[in-house]
DNA sequence: CGCGCGTTTGATAATTATCAAGTGCCGTGG
DNA sequence: CCACGGCACTTGATAATTATCAAACGCGCG
């Protein structure tokens, strides 16, 4: 499904204004910022292109400016699995390591802010404020990994899908979610297609489809387009996710509050 | 199963000599080391005690000296899930965050080297070399999380169990593994009981048991004790794990090579 | 000896993967 | 303008895997 992905909310961000390595820039001194900008290069990758090959040399690190990256691991039997998604402001690649044991690919068309790894690393070593920023970024990544783990905790496909939708709303409210006109309901824009969703949730395309249609039948969601759902019964969705950490009121107020997201 | 856990290889380490915050100490200046030691306190926790409660205040960070910690998340329906295990030299807790969304509990009796979080954080802020060490530690944690993800990639319980056993051998060769007298086969000491193993591999005690017994029937392993297996067909175990990244020869040579582990 | 705990084993039901076919949509090209 | 092919998604039937419930086993310990 090409079109909805390109025009998806997640990718419909302003021209780099806010998310241009926002995750890193925060808290840096002007001097460090200047040095950082000096080695930064914006690059655009088409959908499904490989940014970093699995097991390959890791030449670049950087952060996502626009679009979605998937970290994908290929298994011996040909199956593959998505071990994480990266959205704008997330860092990709790994500092202080020269190999990646998973490949990084473009789940949509992406714009990346790239730094040549060695140049970036020496900058990190010479600028303690940048090192601190990197530490925070890596801690975020760690949280994301733990969140992924939560995702897989769900026993059934339905539970995992519910958790995923709720995670989208909470972690990236203004990139993936909107409110209906009356501000009563949330509309979620799933940033990836069924195929990737299946790999991400550890199941198959068919099971994902059945779960989505099941939600629709049960009145939990209303399918606007295959990647755009209106959540019509938020409490039920939360109950289904088997996760106590979601709060309907908090999700809604977070969205109503202009731009109080996590960035 | 109390006894085997206490006398398990993983917990049978020398008195703090090597693993006393080894992960952090590496590369630190004597000055920083002195400051670090000044705020360090060794504490012992009995099995199943809660070191950090889920959702609770995060007062301490530190690293494991002896024993195994489990990071456990409780779900709304009462089930729980292990999101990671921490073995000697691993850091626990999270710097620069005051809540933990999972609890940290002792999977065996553990000895921890604790730092009061705020004191540790200010030390981190004032010592760039310590910050660098923390960054490396967090990167290791991130790798561990990704490895966990690999663990769950296996479609069947058998595949996940095989992957887990191989991961033990590769990541902590000298804490969990030994060689048979003729140096031909590996003996793995599983650091946790069936119950935790089930939570870790995302299945039930019964399925774990069936998988273990199945391995034994098929000649892949020989069960010495419930937590101590001799791997009798390493290549088959690797094939079963559906993971291309394990290498029988490498695992064996790694173990034969005195102490060339990852520490 | 009996109790508790961890493990094992068995039977059944629920969940999901797999295989197979069908639908709707869009862009291409006659 | 419409037929065609490709792609993403949906739907259906069947088989494999696993969770669940239930009970038994082995073993250390009081």
Account of the protein in words:
Two copies of one chain form a homodimer. By secondary structure, the first copy, chain A, is α+β, with helices and mostly antiparallel strands. Chain A has two domains: 2-151, Jelly Rolls, CATH 2.60.120; 154-256, Winged helix-like DNA-binding domain superfamily/Winged helix DNA-binding domain (Arc Repressor Mutant, subunit A), CATH 1.10.10.10. Chain A contains eleven helices and twelve strands. Chain A has helices spanning 2-6, 22-25, 30-39, 117-126, 128-153, 157-171, 173-176, 194-201, 205-217, 234-240, 248-256, and strands at 40-45, 50-52, 60-66, 69-74, 80-86, 91-92, 103-106, 110-116, 177-179, 186-189, 221-225, 228-231. Chain A has a four-stranded antiparallel beta sheet. Chain A has a four-stranded antiparallel beta sheet with strand order 2-7-4-5. The longest helix of chain A has 26 residues, at 128-153. Chain A is globular. In chain A, 46% of the residues are buried. Chain A binds chain B through residues 73-77, 79, 81, 83-84, 94-97, 101-102, 125, 128, 131-132, 134-136, 138-139, 141-142, 145-146, 148-150, 152-153, 155, 202, 239, 242-245, and chain B through 73-77, 79, 81, 83-84, 94-97, 101-102, 125, 128, 131-132, 134-136, 138-139, 141-142, 145-146, 148-150, 152-153, 155, 202, 239, 242-245. Chain A binds a DNA duplex (30 and 30 nucleotides) through helix 9.
């Amino acid at each position: 499904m090409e079109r909805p992905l390109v025009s998806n909310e997640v990718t419909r961000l302003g021209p780099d204004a806010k998310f241009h390595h926002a995750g890193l820039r925060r808290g840096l001194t002007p001097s460090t910022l200047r040095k950082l900008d000096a080695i930064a290069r914006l690059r655009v990758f088409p959908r499904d292109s490989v940014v970093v090959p699995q097991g390959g040399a890791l030449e670049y690190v950087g952060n996502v400016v626009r679009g979605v990256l998937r970290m994908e691991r290929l298994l011996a039997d040909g199956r593959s699995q998505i071990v994480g998604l990266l959205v704008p402001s997330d860092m990709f690649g790994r500092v202080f390591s020269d190999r990646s044991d998973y490949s990084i690919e473009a789940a949509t068309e992406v714009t990346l802010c790239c730094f040549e790894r060695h140049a970036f690393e020496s900058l990190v070593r010479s600028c303690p404020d940048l090192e601190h920023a990197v530490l925070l970024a890596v801690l975020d990544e760690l949280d994301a990994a733990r969140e992924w783990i939560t995702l897989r905790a769900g026993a059934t496909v339905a539970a995992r899908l519910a958790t995923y939708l709720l995670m989208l709303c909470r972690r990236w409210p203004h990139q993936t979610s909107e409110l209906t006109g009356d501000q009563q309901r949330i509309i979620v824009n799933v940033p990836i297609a069924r195929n990737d969703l299946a790999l991400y949730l550890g199941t198959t395309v068919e099971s994902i489809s059945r779960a989505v249609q099941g939600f629709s039948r049960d009145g939990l969601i209303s399918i606007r387009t295959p990647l755009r759902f209106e959540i019509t019964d938020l409490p039920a969705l939360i109950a289904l996710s088997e996760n106590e950490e979601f709060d309907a009121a908090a999700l809604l107020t977070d969205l109503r509050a202009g731009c109080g997201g996590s960035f």
